[in-house]
Design goal:
Elements: E1 7-9, E2 16-18, E3 23-25, E4 28-31, H1 49-61, E5 66-72, H2 73-76, H3 85-100, E6 104-111, H4 128-145, E7 151-158, H5 180-194, H6 211-238, E8 244-249, H7 271-274, E9 281-284, H8 301-315, E10 322-327, H9 344-358, E11 364-367, H10 396-410, E12 420-425, H11 426-432, H12 440-452, E13 454-459
Helix pairs in contact: 1-3, 4-6, 5-6, 8-9, 8-12, 9-10
Length: 461
């Protein structure tokens, strides 16, 4: 195997290329973790190099070339100011194994799958002390691995959400008092923007404040996410990273529709606005049916494809590639909470629609996940793999995905411009729908979106 070159943005600003040769590179593969490492996956504490090597060999043998792997705070930075050499050694071994099989890694920024001390948590976006610690960790990582061409990308975080603080200033999963820094910044921001100090956070519904305050609060949240993104990118580049930087953005960042259950809300991360800090944008997309347990995608396939196209076009920044780095559906195994096993062909039907539709604007695809998780307490990961959980059989979708990978690597798709653009005011749209837009807009326009390639642009706030 020849010397591996760094992957970079290609000259057309839409696709990727390898090194100075300019040979087009299509990242196409999967989100990787050993399916026998529990849920959430203990990628590093249960790291078994021999098993990982076999699994990577299996992936590469099918012509796939990219893996997305989660780093972890507890493994690299277990206590304040301490950095574990054993954890860094495992990351180095992972890189060496990937390189030996010609695979590229997208490392998703240090998360908390393996636990970790309270030093790793806080108000991610407004607490300067927390952000400084995160930047310091990034610089330690880059010092060790910033010259490794098998690492394609450093991804700042998986699916960041700035969060909507209720008036009392307490976000779910955050101890009381952790939002003091955000409240201080909000008061200062409101004084500057409104000429008066607003002493409480508006709720997501926005019914208790004026439309002007609501709009200013959206601008405030975007200022937090912009600063958070810029600081980390600068830290990574200052440390000498030769790889690209991206951000794993959730589909709610293009808020044409937001799932009504749970804590789902607009993420506060605008892909197009943040693209100036990044080398390329990355979007995640799942079907998010109203009743996700029914598995019935067919009756809503046009609406879901329309939703997907809006998300992908909304996540695509001019002059920068887009990677659909998480997508998937279930097939061939039982998903926790369900009584029916959906056929493998069902997974193939939906996932091929995802790849073909997103190929109008995307330049890379990573299935969730490598193999069905064997943990009985998992989520859709129990049936969304390319391989079965025993890793002995490539599933129906896995076989089809391998065929698509060969096709796209031989003939990388070119961008198909939008046929029409709709403009929606972000603040008005969110406030009108009390922060959680329903499928009403999609129901009205989904056929046009699919047939005409409609792009929805959110202006403001």
């Amino acid at each position: 195997m020849g010397r591996m070159a760094f992957v970079k943005v290609g000259p057309d600003g839409h696709r990727f290329a390898e090194g100075e040769s300019g040979k087009l590179f299509v990242p196409i593969g999967c989100n990787y973790f050993d399916p026998d490492t529990g849920w959430a996956p203990k990628i590093w504490s249960r790291f078994a190099p021999e098993r990982v090597n076999r699994q990577m060999e299996q992936i590469a043998s099918q012509g796939l070339n990219a893996l997305r792997i989660f780093l972890d705070v507890a493994v690299l930075n277990p206590t304040p100011g301490s950095y574990d050499p054993a954890g860094f050694a495992k990351v180095r071994k992972m890189i060496e194994l990937a390189k030996s099989h010609g695979l590229r890694i997208i490392f998703s920024g240090p998360n908390g799958w393996e636990g970790g001390g309270m030093h790793a948590w806080g108000d991610f976006y407004a607490d300067e002390a927390y952000l400084a610690k995160r930047c310091e960790l990034w610089q330690k990582i880059i010092k060790e691995f910033g010259g490794e061409p098998a690492v394609m990308t450093w991804e700042l975080m998986n699916e960041p959400h700035v969060g909507w603080a209720p008036p009392e200033g307490h976000l779910p999963h955050h101890p009381p008092g952790r939002l003091a820094a955000r409240l201080t910044k909000w008061r200062e921001f409101s004084r500057q923007e409104l000429g008066q100090e607003v002493t409480k956070f508006p709720t997501i519904e926005g019914t208790e404040v004026s439309a002007e305050v609501y709009r200013v609060y959206l601008r405030f949240l975007e200022s937090l996410t912009d600063g958070w993104t810029a600081r980390q990118c600068q830290a990574i580049r200052d440390a000498g990273a030769r790889q690209m930087i991206s951000l794993g953005i959730h589909q709610s960042s293009v808020p044409i529709y937001i799932q009504q259950s749970g804590h789902h809300s607009w993420s506060g991360f605008s892909p197009r606005k943040l693209a100036k800090h990044l080398d390329y944008t990355s979007m995640h997309f799942y079907a998010l049916l109203e009743d996700v347990h029914t598995g019935m995608i067919e009756p809503q396939i046009t609406r879901r494809r329309g939703y997907l196209e809006i998300v992908c076009r909304g996540g695509k920044a001019p002059g920068k590639p887009l990677v659909l780095e998480e997508f998937g559906w279930k097939g061939g195994a039982l998903v926790p909470g369900e009584k029916k096993i959906w056929p493998q062909e069902h997974q193939t039907m939906w996932c091929e629609h995802v790849v073909r539709t997103s190929a109008k604007v995307a330049s890379g695809w990573l299935n969730w996940a490598y193999a069905d998780s064997s943990d009985p307490n998992t989520d859709i990961s129990g049936a969304s793999g390319l391989w079965r959980s025993d890793m002995k059989e490539l599933k129906h979708w896995g076989r089809r995905f391998v065929e698509i990978a060969a096709e796209y690597k031989a003939n990388p798709p070119t961008e198909i411009p939008a046929g029409r653009r709709y403009t929606l005011d972000l603040a008005d749209y969110l406030r009108e729908h009390q922060g959680r837009p329903t499928e009403a807009w999609l129901a009205t326009h989904c056929v046009q979106v699919v047939e005409e390639g409609i792009e929805v642009e959110f202006t403001g706030p």
